[in-house]
Amino acid sequence: MKRLGTSLGTYVLSSPLIAAAGTVGSIVEFADVIDFSLYGAATTKSVAPEPWPGREPPRIAPGEMGMLNSIGIQNTGIDVWAESMATELAGIPTKVWGSVVAHDIEGFGEVARRMADVGVSAIEVNLSCPNLDGTPFALDPLLSRDVVRCVRDAVSLPIGAKLSSDAEPITAVASAVQGAGADWVVVANTVMAARIDPVTRRPVLSGLIGGYSGAPIRPITLRSVLQVARDLPDLPIVGCGGVSQAGHVVEYLLAGAAAVAIGSAHFKTPRVARKITRDLERYIRRHELSGVAELIGAYEPW
Ligand SMILES: Cc1cc2nc3c(=O)[nH]c(=O)nc-3n(C[C@H](O)[C@H](O)[C@H](O)COP(=O)(O)O)c2cc1C
Questions:
Q1: Which residue range(s) make up the domain with 101?
Q2: Where would I find the beta strands (DSSP E) of the chain?
Q3: Which of 17, 18, 23 most suits a substitution to test ligand 1, by most atoms within 8 Å of the C-beta?
Q4: Which of 3, 27, 163, 221 is the most buried (most CB within 10 A)?
Q5: Which residues lie below 8 Å from residue 279, measured CB to CB, with a gap of 6+?
Q6: Measured distance CA(261)–CA(39) in Å, rounded
Q7: What is the number of domains present in the chain?
Q8: Is residue 59 in some structural domain?
């Protein structure tokens, strides 16, 4: 349906829905369950230059409201990824964004180059994983700039930079990555958080601090989207955080996002995009809109 079409600058999407990194596995392993043609793009789990084992268990803790994770980006590394995806990518019925991660700046460029060779449609630079040792790149505008510049030099594909609502101010990081050549920003990754079990007195995650996702982070992430949209009106935004219904997608579009990623909702309802798409189409008809693009940044100020 054309009225769901949107774009991130000149990069055209058939739907504003994006499958968020790490919540649909390698994409290939979910292709029998999830109809990826309902998404404008699907993002791979982040891939590093070499295999990473991830953190020790426990590394997932469902809460009363959202979930905490400290997976630590367990992944096979780019060699295995490239070999397994080379033949599979063409069968995915939407654009595939390759999510890159590394411990050092050069590593991001190396993985991006290899993913481009395999044929991904765009590169998502994961600057914001809260589960690695040290401070996430996304909290530092200069480091974030250097990473994106390295990826920009490595590939000619469109680049999205995945930021963190923990950055203060997030607009400084958004501005830095835009200057370094990012075509859009993904706002945002999980929010850094922790819990301790009062019975065992142990942190619920072995890594102590992890990433919080799901419904409770939606207002936080929405605040970040509003700030980036206000300060950098020319920088396209993918909103990401706590989306499980069409109304949430509309909320992000109104705040200034041009596309909206669905993450943790896939764990409870893998086919969640089907109902969201139907309800979005209904919303467009009911409000007599020409399409979702009409909603971008169109909230009514008081
Ligand atoms: C179990 C899990 C694994 C994740 N893995 C990745 C990852 O590999 N790369 C990445 O950029 N984000 C990763 N994320 C973050 C999500 O892509 C998304 O940004 C975040 O969960 C917020 O969206 P949500 O509230 O809709 O889940 C992961 C999130 C979860 C819950």
A1: 2-54+76-194+214-295
A2: 6-8, 11-13, 17-19, 41-43, 60-62, 67-69, 95-100, 122-126, 159-162, 184-187, 191-193, 210-213, 237-240, 259-262
A3: 23
A4: 163
A5: 245, 246, 247
A6: 9
A7: 1
A8: no
Q: What is the pTM of this model?
A: 0.98
Tokens of 53: 């084992």
- Whole-number Å distance, alpha carbon 249 to ligand 1 midpoint, is 17
Encoded tokens for 156 = 């000619």
Domain with residue 86: its CATH number is 3.20.20.70
Q: Where are the alpha helices (DSSP H) in the chain?
A: 78-85, 105-118, 141-154, 170-179, 218-231, 246-255, 265-268, 272-286
Amino acid, res. 265: A
Q: Which atom of ligand 1 is nearest to the CA of 213?
A: 25
CB 171 within 8 A of CB 228: yes
User: Do residues 134 and 159 touch, judged by C-beta distance below 8 A?
Assistant: no
Residues in the ligand 1 pocket, defined by CB under 6 Å = 20-23, 45-46, 69, 71, 73, 99, 126, 162, 189-190, 213-214, 217, 240-243, 262-265
And the tokens for 146?
């250097």
